[in-house]
Specification:
The chain is mainly β. It has no helices and 8 strands. Strands 1-3-6-5-4-7-8-2 form an 8-stranded mixed sheet, with no helix packed on it.
């Protein structure tokens, strides 16, 4: 018996971020589509001292259902300066990005 299954690989789509700005150490929840349930990473890209820098965020959890609806949570790394950053979501197939604001911590 030979079973043929068609499937499409979709690029991730970021829907919402909650909260929309956060301080180092805070946890942010992201919803959207096609993040993947494994090997997902979140990177924050920013300028510091005239140099391009990036930090990887630690994931608290990731989830994607059969339809591709996705949810994940990540922690803002410590020692990242306040200001606007580029947030990049990567999975094994593709990446997407949006802007995010880092605020001063306590």
């Amino acid at each position: 018996v030979l079973v043929s299954r068609d499937f499409n690989v979709e690029s991730p789509v970021i829907g919402t971020l909650d909260p929309t700005s956060a301080a180092p150490g805070d946890v942010v929840t992201m919803s959207g589509q096609f993040f993947g349930a494994r090997r997902v990473s979140i990177w924050l890209h920013y300028q510091s001292g005239g140099k391009d820098c990036r930090k990887k965020c630690r994931l608290a959890f990731t989830y994607m259902d059969e339809a591709g609806e996705s949810l994940l949570a990540f922690r803002i790394p410590m020692r990242i300066p306040a200001g606007e950053v580029v947030l990049r979501l990567r999975n094994p197939c593709a990446e997407t990005q949006t802007t995010f604001t880092i605020i001063e911590g306590p």
